[in-house]
UniProtKB/TrEMBL annotation:
PANTHER family: AMINO ACID IMPORT ATP-BINDING PROTEIN (PTHR43166), GLUTAMATE_ASPARTATE IMPORT ATP-BINDING PROTEIN GLTL (PTHR43166:SF9). It is a peripheral membrane protein. GO terms for molecular function: ABC-type amino acid transporter activity; ATP binding; ATP hydrolysis activity. This is Amino acid ABC transporter ATP-binding protein. It comes from Leucobacter edaphi. The keyword Transport applies. It is found in: Cell membrane. SMART domains: AAA.
Length: 250
């Protein structure tokens, strides 16, 4: 494990589905405490890239390093790698048969062997932090979409992961619920989390990202600070993408 290098290093990653190339030579480093936001049209490769980092998809070429460890090495223990990464998807993925506190503490108890009392103490503190301390005993079907997504984020950070992956976490939410979830991500950024997230929320990307990465057809077209990408993009492809979203420049 390399403490001085990037938390995540993606080197020349390619991924195909059949004859269709989805990732075509992705190179991306993410530093500790950095928030990198992936933007791009549907089908640009954002979600597939996140899935390769969490080993839900195997790369066809290239490699991915987590704190210096080559996690794409066939000898790597996928479960051990995933235990180091927190992941939140767009559709919550909470266990419906577990209440909120059990969802939050499951990995801490089962993967890391934390005693239930200690795991629940941490879990209740997390639920309080996200404004859901009164919902600890509720099952997912009794929670709103925004509440479910906040529980999913609490579950992802309960084990203090080295890296947090957020994949379109607001796209399944009603517009009025988006703000409460994004406020939580902003808090995580302020607390020093290392985050890679894919989003269609350009205003949020502008507000929270340290770096914005624009993908198109499985290639990184442009990467830079949000003020550069949104106000002064260098590439015509980036300008065209932002124009289609009616994002004002400058």
């Amino acid at each position: 494990m390399n403490e001085s290098g990037p938390v995540l290093a993606i080197e020349g990653v390619h991924k195909r589905f059949g004859e269709h190339p989805v990732l075509r030579g992705i190179d991306l480093d993410v530093a500790k405490h950095e928030v990198v936001v992936l933007i791009g049209a549907s089908g640009s490769g954002k979600s597939t890239l996140l899935k390769t980092v969490n080993l839900l998809e195997q790369v066809d070429d290239g490699r991915i390093l987590l704190a210096g460890d080559d996690i794409t090495d066939p000898r790597a223990d996928a479960d051990a790698v995933r235990a180091r990464i927190g992941v939140v998807f767009q559709h919550y993925n909470l266990f419906p048969h577990l209440n909120a506190i059990d969802n939050v503490t499951l990995a801490d108890r089962k993967v890391f062997g934390t005693p239930r009392a200690e795991a629940e103490r941490k879990g209740r503190a997390l639920l309080e932090r996200i404004g859901l301390s009164d919902k600890a005993g509720e099952y997912p079907d009794r929670l709103s979409g925004g509440q479910q997504q906040r529980v999913a984020i609490a579950r992802a950070i309960a084990t203090d992961p080295e890296l947090l992956l957020l994949d379109e976490i607001t796209s399944a939410l009603d517009p009025q619920l988006v703000g409460e979830v994004l406020d939580l991500v902003r808090e995580l950024k302020d607390a020093g989390s290392t985050i890679v997230m894919a989003t269609h929320e350009m205003s949020f990307a502008r507000a929270v990202a340290d770096r914005v990465v624009y993908l198109k057809d499985g290639v990184i077209i442009e990467s830079g600070p949000p003020e550069q990408i949104f106000a002064h993009p260098e590439r015509e492809e980036t300008r065209e993408f932002l124009r289609r979203l009616h994002t004002p420049f400058g």
